[in-house]
Structure formats: C-alpha cells, structure tokens
Amino acid sequence: MFSIIKFIIFLICSWAFGYISLSRLLKIRSLVLLIPLSVSFGITAYVFTCHILSFLTGTQKAAWISVIVLVLESILIFFINRKNSTPAEKEITTSQLITISTIAIFICLLTFMAVSKFGTFDREAHIPIAMTMFHNNVYPPRDCFRSDYVLLYHYGGDLLAGAIQYITNLDISTSYELIAAILSGTTFLSFFALCWLLTSGFKLSLLGGFCAYFGGGLLWLDAVIRYLTKNFPDGVTNWSFLQTFLNLGIHGGINNAPSVLTFISTFNLGNPVLICSLILFWKMIREKNIKSGIYYIFFLTITLFILYLTADWLYVTFWVAVLPFTFFLWKDNKKQFIISTLIILFISVFLNKSAGNPLFLQDSLQALGRTNIFDTGIKKQLFSVVGWGRISAHVMNYQTISCFSWDFICEIGLSLFLFPVALIYLIKTKNRLGYLLFLASAMTMPIPVLIDFKLNPVELVRLFAFGNTMLILLITCGTAFLYKPFVKNNFLIIPYAVVFCLSPFSQLIFGAVFSPHIYSNKSLVQTLCNDLKKIKSLNELFSYLRDYSQYMHLTKSRVITAYKSEMEFFRSQSKPGDVALSTIHEIPAYTGVYSLIPTQRFVYWDLLYSPHNTLYETAFSTLDPYLLKELNIKWLLINPELKSKLPKETRDTLNNSNIFSLAFISPNKLEIYHVNELENILKTSPRKTAWMLINRNGYPVTSKKNKIVLFPDLRDALVELKSLQSTNPVLKKQLITACAVIIQSLEKQIVDSKINIDVEKRFSTL
Q1: Cα 261 from chain centre
Q2: CATH class of residue range 564-684
C-alpha cells in the first residue's frame, strides 16, 4: 500500500509541475487542454530531468533528485507568477467534464485489467532494460544482454518505468502496467483536446476523440466475411464465429488503434507526448508575447527530446508534418514563427546527437560489430508492407501484404476511401491546425510502402498508426461539417462509431476479460471457446472468469513466483557491473543483473548482433576463464540436468574451486556459482575460446582468402574490423560482427572440411 501511495505522490508532483508550468509560463487557460497536457508534460519533464541527471549522478540518485527538482520548480514558478495568475477557463459544463473524465477513467481501468494479466508487451526484453539501468547505476545504459555494448534502443518508457519502480518499490511489471493505465486515459483526453481545438464543440469533440482513440480498420468485417464464406487460414477446417472474430477480427497485423498500442511502453508515452508537442506548436504560432514564445521553444525542446528517446518514429512524424507546414506560416506572413521552428529543429537535432545519442563520447568501437539501425533504402517491391502474421498460425510469422489487397484495406479501414471528406473539410474551412494534422498523415503513411528498413522491415508499419488516427479524426470533423444534422442524430453517430471502432473497442474489452494473449495465441482462443461452450449459467461464467483471471496473473509472474529465492539471492549478492550466465536468463535479468541470452531468443538482438553470434552457447559449453574474465561473468546459474550434460572438461572447470565457488542451492535445486578472481588461473590455463569476425551469413571475414584470424578479445577483433573498413569501405555497409568460437571445434571443422585454411592466432598459447 505504501508503494501505491508513493506512486500517487509521484503522479501528483508530475501533474502539478505540468499544470503550474503550462498555466503560469505558457499562459494556457483552457481546462480542456490543461487536464491531459499537464500529465503528459509533467511526466515528460520528469523523464527529461532524470535522463540528464543520470549522466551526472547515475540513475539511482537521478530518480529521486528529479522528483525534488519538479517540486521545487513548481513552487518557484507558482510564487514568481502568483500575481499574474488567472483561473483556468472552463469551456465545458460540469456534467460534460464528468462525462469525459468518466470515460477516461473507464479506459484506464480496462487498460489496467488487460495489461495486469499480461504485463507490458515484450516484457522479457523491457523489464531487463529497466532493471539493469537502475541496478547497475550506469548511464547511458548498457545493453542488458550484451553489457560490453551501450544500449541502442528507444528506452524512454523503460527509464520512466525503472525510475518509478526504484522510488516506489513497486514490482517492475506493476510499474509498467500503472503507467500504461494512466497514459491510456491521458491519450484519450489528448485526442479530445485536439478535436476541441478544431471544432470547439463538446459532442463532436467527444465523438472525434473516441473514434481517434478506438478508430481502426475493418477487421470485424473481414472476420464476418471469412466466417460466412468459411475462408479460414491454412490448416483450419472450421471455426466458430467467436473464434473467427477473436483470431481475425480484433488485432491488426500492420495497423492498430491507440487503445491497444498503449499496452506498449513506447507508444503509451509516445502518443500523448506527440499530441502534446503538436498542441504546443500550434499554440506557439498563435502566441504574440515574445517571452511566452521563448518558453514555448523551451517546452517543445523537452517534449521532442523525450519523444525521440521514447519513440523515434513519432519524433519523425512531428517533423515531417511541421516542416512542410511552415509553408502556411510563410503564406500567412508569420515568418517569425518559421525562425522559431528552425531554432527548435536545430536545438532538437543537437540534443539528439549528443545527450540523446548513446554513442556520443563513447569509444568509437561501440559503433562496430552491430547492424546499422538507421540503414534504409527504396523497396524492391514497392507498395507492399511486411506485417505481423494476423492470418498465419503465429503472430511472429511475418507476412508481406500488397497495398492493393483486401488484407491491406481491412487493416487501414474506411479512412482509405473517406479521406476526401477530410480534404473537403480542410479546403472549405481552411483550418490551419487541420492542415498540420493532415500532414502528419500524408507525410508518414506512404513511408512503409516505399521505404525499406533493413534492420527489421516490419517495424515501419508503426508509421501507419498515428497517421490513420489523424485521418479518422479529420474525417469525423469533416462529416459533421458537411452534414450538419450528423452530430445531433444518435442513429447516425452510433453506426458511425461502430464501423470505425468495433474492432479496437472489442480488442480492449476482450483483452481486459481474457488478457491480450488472445491477440496472438490462436491455441488459447480455441481453448477459451471450447470452455465457454460448456458453461451453463451466469454463476459458472463468473466462476470461470475469476479462475481464468487468477491463472493469467500467475502465468504473467511465473518466473518471479517460481524463482523467488534465486532472484532474491541475485538482488542481494550481485554487484553493479556483474554479468550472469544462467540456464534461465530471466532470473538474473529480472533483478537487474546483466545476462547473456541464447541465440534466436529475441528477434531484435539477433538482428542487431547476428543470429550466428553464439556467445551464450560458447560461454556455457566451455566456461573458459578467459571469456569469463573478459565479459565480467561473475555468476553462473545452472540446473542439475544441464550440468550433467556438459562436456567432461567443462564439468571439471565448474568443479575447480579456484575458478568457481558454490554460493547457493535454491529450493528448486538450482545451483548458483560465483566466479572467483581469475588472474592466477589465466597464467597457467590454456585458452579455449577466441574471437573472429563473421558476416551476416556466418562466414569469416579477413583481409585474405582462405584465412581465419582469431583474436584474444572482442576489442582486438573490432580494432581489426575498423582497419579492414578503412581499406575496404564496402565493408561499412555490411553487418560484420565479432563472434566467440571454440578454438578446438573450429580447428576440427577445418580439418574435416579438407580445405586449406590458414588459422592465425593473435595471442600466445600455453
């Protein structure tokens, strides 16, 4: 309970800073704007302060100091501007305020019910990122699964979750879940505020905000058609209607509404911050006071920096909309705001290249041995996108979808056909804010069908989401403008909302009841449908749902529950910088200890470091003291079954008391060993492993043909790579990484291949 109280205090401090700074410095009086923007900007300011201070003090002190800074700044701003303060303008009635607040709270509750059964999406990666930031107290953060490298990831949401966990002592999963819940309601209110700025009408703003938050494609229609025509995916003979609807009618493969994207730590912070940035920009170009204009530049600098740190594609969305919009500033003779925009752009780029760049002031070798995450090009197959496997057996089976196919149409929905309504609305009203929002769609939605993102093509479909949302918002405003009775006629509003929102709204409801597992787990959906058929009464239904909910909560926290003693050991005994080698990598990783992971465990890391990089397997199969020393592996967790299957030489190494000390045997019979100081051992032990350079296909890379060079450590291998790139610039465009190999196994492979290959060892042998 005390942890929840501390979380509430944190929210109050953040909101208070946002409200006071926006109302006193920017002179924003609109209560419709202040309610969501205070939350968005307050949290953004906290993350910004925590990020900057982390470089100076480390993450642990920065988490606390940032709260204190916000409180002190709130007090300072309040007293300095107390004489010039005016009350907020209440543009809507009390009953209307209660209505939108009730809807926002309802959304928060449904979101929390859903994510509490699942945790944040990709929790196996995000939780270690957040925990290692604060356990190791190092900034910029190191890669939680490759601590020899700095982390290349949009980790703003993880920094926020980790900071909240650290200062409140909440479970890290609960921290993510509470953030998602709070920001879900904030996002809805932000869309309402955006629509209010366009229309100044409550009912239309409510409809526009609702359709923007829940607006999606025609997946529900696709599910109905497939059920009626029995057009099921390959391998499926017959599905019930409910099964078809859950499998195909609620979750998209290339586009999803904000209502479900809020489950993801990047989107749940990114969307409200982007809307906040757009509103602040709109307010800035209408501001006549020079002093307030300077404040707007400062505020936008903060929001855009955190937007880049959290969801860089949304940062791109802001600028590809704003920069073309400067044409209208020039046309409206507001050239001074063009200068303000360029100043913000300059400061933003400078900050992103410095404080927002993990490689800034780092060893130049940090940029080597990993995929270039910014590598893009024109698609070979234009007007097609790679999406998640909505129709396939598993969501991770990527599918290429033509932009002229039904699958694409039902993903994007009616906005593909009704966007002329938005255009007519903008032409007739000449609403400049509408122009800005339309540019956010027009400039981003074509990108995934034209540009190829080499690291992982499926990532580009993220650019559909916000653009499509803005189209839906503008179409709603345009429909009401072109047909005046529309907003007053509930018989028109309800079907309109159903057509646009049925799939995402159902997605949130079913996610809250059954958990988001049903979005990607078709086997679970089948089990659920079979179980529901057996239920005969409401009491049985409620009992089933209660038991199911408990099961999902237990499943979500199974690692923490099952291995509580092991995790407590790592939490109390490990030191900052320690690396663990574990048969269950979540155990050390969830406590904040750097942990190596098996190959092909996470798609992102395989793409970044190459799926042929078998560092985990090499370290486990050899327990080479040289490799343990280099990677700072201080802990080994192993189960008896794997221990018995290790090579005899490796078991002998494990039983060598000069190398390992048995530190703990858990109730689960897992053994945790501590790695002793290895300096003396290295003087007498032969090296079992070495590093060599390999390309994307796993083949050796050297300066000469039929030659393999083995290096004593990663750094020497990367130095060689840098030298090779200087003489052969073509190599800079290829993924070449350093891979740890077993020397004896490599030599045996060369002998068995009967190919004349020279092996050069750049280290002394004992």
Answers
A1: 10
A2: alpha beta
The angle, 0 to 180 degrees and rounded to 10, between the axes of the packed helices 156-168 and 2-24 is: 130
The set of residues, in sequence order, having a beta carbon less than 8 Å from that of 288 and lying 6+ positions away, is: none
Q: Token digits for 629?
A: 């020393």
Question: Is residue 766 scored above 70 in pLDDT?
Answer: no
Closest CA to 212 of 578, 498, 469: 469
Q: Among the listed ranges 151-160, 420-429, 600-609, 739-748, which one has the minimum average pLDDT value?
A: 600-609
Contacts of 210 (CB under 8 A, 6+ apart): 103, 188, 497, 501
DSSP letter (8 states) at residue 761: E
Establish whether the linkage from the previous residue to 576 is cis, with ω within 30° of 0: no
Question: DSSP letters of 83-99?
Answer: GG--PPB--S-HHHHHH
Calpha distance 159→141 (Å, rounded): 10
Q: Report the C-alpha dihedral over residues 303, 112, 555, 569, rounded to 10 degrees.
A: 50
- E strand or H helix that includes residue 637: strand 633-638
Coil, strand or helix at 115: helix
d(CA 107, CA 487): 23
pLDDT band at 456 (very low <50, low <70, confident <90, very high): confident
* Residue 697, SS3 per DSSP: coil
Q: How far apart are CA 142 and CA 131, in angstroms?
A: 11
Q: What spatial distance separates the first Cα and last Cα of the chain, rounded to whole Å?
A: 60
CATH 3.40.50 maps onto the chain at 564-684
Task: Tell me which H or E stretch contains 221.
Answer: helix 219-229
What is d(CA 347, CA 356) in angstroms, rounded to the nearest whole number? Answer: 12
Angle in degrees, CA 722, 726, 729, rounded to 5: 110
Per the DSSP assignment, residues forming a β-bridge with 758 are 707
Return d(Cα 508, Cα 631) in angstroms, integer: 43
CB 434 within 8 A of CB 477: yes
Closest by CA to 29, choosing from 42, 40, 44, 19, is 19
Residue 219, pLDDT > 60, answer: yes
Reported as type and span, the H/E element at residue 378 is strand 376-378
Strands 758-761, 707-710: pairing kind: parallel
Contact 281, 437 (CB under 8 A): no
Q: Are 590 and 571 in contact (CB under 8 A)?
A: no
Give the orientation angle of helix 290-310 with respect to helix 156-168, to 10 degrees.
90
Around 699, how many Cα atoms within 13 Å sit in the side-chain half-sphere?
7
